[in-house]
Every structure is written in C-alpha cells, then in structure tokens.
Design brief:
Helix content is 44%, strand content 18%. The protein has 16 helices and 16 strands. The strands form four sheets. Strands 4-14-13-12-11-10-6-5 form an eight-stranded parallel β-sheet. It binds zinc ion (ZN).
Amino acid sequence: MFELLKTDPESGARLGRLTTPHGVVDTPAFMPVGTQASVKALDPRELREMGAQIILGNTYHLCIRPGMDILRAAGGLHQFMSWPGPILTDSGGFQVFSLAGIRKVKPHGVEFRSHLDGSPLFLGPKEAMEIQRLLGADVAMVFDECPPHDCSAREARAAVERTIRWAGECREQARAPGQQVFGIVQGGVNPALREECAKAVVALEFDGYAIGGVSVGEAEADMLRAVEMTGPFLPPAKARYAMGLGTPAQMVELAARGVDMFDCVLPTRVARNGTAFTRRGTFAIKGGACKAEFRPLEDGCGCFACRHFTRAYIRHLLNVNEILGLRLVSIHNTHFFLQVMRDIRAHLAAGTFGAFRREFIANYVPTRRVLAARARAAAADAC
Ligand SMILES: [Zn+2]
C-alpha cells in the first residue's frame, strides 16, 4: 500500500509511493480538491496532463448534492465524474468546523442542517464510512471532530476523545474493495493532547495517518508546531497527510517535516480572483503591470497556459470576465503546485533536497498577509 523509498537524512523529508486500486501515487503528493465532484474549472484530461495522480472528494457535500441515490446509480464517484485515477474522500469531519453554525455535535455523530435547504443530515462514523464505501474512494478518512483553533481546553479534550472513539468505530465498518482508511490526529497545539490522540489512533492500525486540526485559522507557526509535535508518534512505514495545507512554501517546509500528502483549495480559489502562483510568490494578473506583458505567467513553466498564452491576453480575459481566463490561471496554478511536488521528489531522489529547500524558501516571497501574521507572532513571542 505505502512504500517508504527514501528518507532525507538532513531533514526527515520522505520519498514514497502509495498504491491504490486506481493507480499509484508518488509522494510527496499534492491532491487537487474536487469537493463537489469537480476540481473547479479543470476537467480530468487537463488534470491528467498536468500530472495529478490523485484528487479529493467530500463526503458531506456529495451526500447533500447530488445525493447518494444518484452516486450509487452512477456506479460510484470515479464513474460519475469520469476520473480514472485514485480518489481520497474527506469524511465530513472538516465540515464540523467549517459549518459550525448549522450543526450539533452528539455522542454518536453530528447533526447537520443542510447549508442549502435546512434538511437534516446525520453523519457519524457509520454513516461517513458507508458513504465513502459507496463512493468507492481509494482512500477514505475516518470521521473526526475538527474543533476551531481557539476553542477552550475542555472543548479540545472533548474533541480528541470523540475523535478517538469514532476512529475505533470507523475501523469496524465495511470498506469498498481495496479501500484504505486513514486515521486522523486532532489535539490542536496542545502537545499532550496531540500525543494522546496520535498514540490512540495509531494503536487502531490504520493504513495511513492524517494530521487534522490544521488550516483552521491558526497562525503558521502553530500549524508547523502541530505537525512537528504529531510526527514522532506516527509509524514511519505509513503515509502521512497534512489536511488542508498549504501554500507552496509551506508544502516544502512540511515535506521537510516528513509530510507525504497535501490538499489545498488555494490554486483554484485564488485563480478566480486573478492571482497566479510563481516561484517568487503570487502576483495579481489583473493589475496594469501585465497589460502589455507578452510573456507567460511564469517563464519556463511547462503548463498548457504558459506554453500558449501571454500575461497580457490572460489579463484581458479576466478583465472582460471570459471564463477561459480563470480556466487558464487554474491550469497554471494547479500545475505549479504539482510541479513543486515533482521537484521535491526529484531532489529527494538525487539527495539534493536540502539545497532545493533553501533556494525555494529564499526565492518565495510570502503574501503580505502571511508576512504580517509572522510579524505578529514574532512580536508575541518577544513579549
Ligand atoms: Zn504555467
């Protein structure tokens, strides 16, 4: 299932391979997010062409629409969306966080009120695993409780206890043929809770392990700390997945901390605002600077958008609201995230990851928001 091929002696970064019923995933891997059975604005042929080996789906959202009757009749999620490769499905645990206003946490699961029409949906360990079985996910995630980063110590403890209990129940449910199930470690930035949760979930012997409770509004330093305090309790021979992360620079830093799998909505989300990722950070394409720039979004990029179109043309498309504009930026951004992973893997294989990491971080200018958050964290540390 997961083979650990090489570990970087300098950093702990890992080169690996995850084998699933729908194909092989080379790790570290970036998984484009297809919450609603579509990676926004990209079709499966484009995803294949840019080297995506696995994509994400979401239990809660697919269960609300189109609903399990349709997905069952379609023959599962792969068939429905015509994606032949591996799929990992989130269990709906993240929606316990993101839809906090329309759900109630109960001992056996979570009662949601549909964000569309208010109709009830109950998701617990049994329901989430049954849905993921019917979807035919190659990798299913256990149903967990993801609390906000600023919750009280009591809430954090309760979430960890429920997450452990629910993981045990998920472990017992039926699976699709060949389906792997990953456990999830919660515990926020509390080292004792992270350790307790990791040890209990690892004792249940899942096929891989995710670090959850990150990407929930915490500071970058807290996110890195949460990953660092979880890693030592995870078995080296199993895949490690950091849920919902991150920016390209964060992914390089997380890979250096032994993370094998990533998912993030950023490449397609910021594409819709006309923002492109490059090795020097992000830039806004709609600005006047690109008006007469007859060069690609990023020089040397091998993506379809950069091989055929100029910044000036893409800026024009975005400014006149032509759909092709956001499609081209989505293609470039998603390709860029996948390319960063290819680079990480190539440098791990060649034994040059340390130099690559230093150069990447030195060149990558974080957004003003990230820099401001870092400055606030440094000031708080100094106090
Ligand atoms: Zn490109």
